[in-house]
Design a protein that fits this description.
Rossmann fold; five-stranded parallel β-sheet; four-stranded mixed β-sheet; 9 strands; binds guanosine-5'-monophosphate
Length: 197
């Protein structure tokens, strides 16, 4: 089945690259979509967030995240170095501001993969940003994906499911919705929204 764009906003005639925010419930497959997209289009720049979460097996500092401790994160916040940040399921996550600004000034499309609270902050500070919601094909599928990842403790999964219910209700705040039925289709849709294709 193809990814279904359910957006309501008209396509902007302005072809300048802009900031695109991909958000959606934890476990919906945002990082899989982004990883696939970058394999096919390595020129698309994805912001690397700072987080206080511990690395999962295979994750590397500076690649998936900048892994920092609480004190370092406090400093990033205090110095205004984060474009947005949020606490999610007991850890903090934030987007380093300067790298994003540099890319936008260079005229390159920029993609952020962040949670709902972060998406709302970006909407407030950058009106021109394009907010894209990645929705699961169904609630059952989301539960299956979150439970099946096998890397998280049961209480962590429980917290993420609670957060996911709140996040699903926020779809209407977004400019576009893509339903994650196929990684390839969603990646293509996202690239089209970013005007890379
Ligand atoms: P995970 O721990 O599974 O890598 O990420 C948990 C959640 O944090 C995901 O929904 C992810 O999109 C979000 N996230 C990752 N980086 C950032 C960030 O820089 N800011 C915000 N607000 N959320 C982020």
């Amino acid at each position: 089945m193809a990814a279904t764009p359910r957006g309501t906003s008209p396509v902007s005639p302005d072809a300048r690259p802009r900031l695109t925010v991909l958000s959606g419930p934890s476990g919906v497959g945002k990082s899989t979509v982004v990883a696939h997209m970058r394999k096919v289009h390595p020129e698309v720049w994805l912001s690397v967030s700072a987080t206080t979460r511990k690395p999962r097996p295979g994750e590397r500092h500076g690649v998936q995240y900048f892994f920092v401790d609480d004190e370092e994160f406090d400093k990033l916040v205090a110095n205004g170095e984060l474009l947005e940040w949020a606490e999610f399921a007991g850890n903090r996550y934030g987007t380093p501001r300067k790298a994003v600004q540099d890319r936008l000034e260079a005229g390159e499309p920029v993609l952020l993969e962040i949670d709902l609270q972060g998406a709302r902050q970006v909407r407030e500070s950058m009106k021109e940003a394009q907010l894209v919601f990645l929705a699961p094909p169904s609630w059952e599928e989301l539960v299956r994906r979150l439970t099946g990842r096998g890397t998280e403790a049961p209480e962590v999964i429980e917290r993420r499911l609670t957060a996911a219910k709140v996040e699903l209700a926020a779809e209407a705040e977004f400019d576009e919705t893509l339903v994650n039925t196929s990684v390839e289709d969603v990646s293509r849709e996202l690239l089209a929204l970013m005007k890379v294709l």
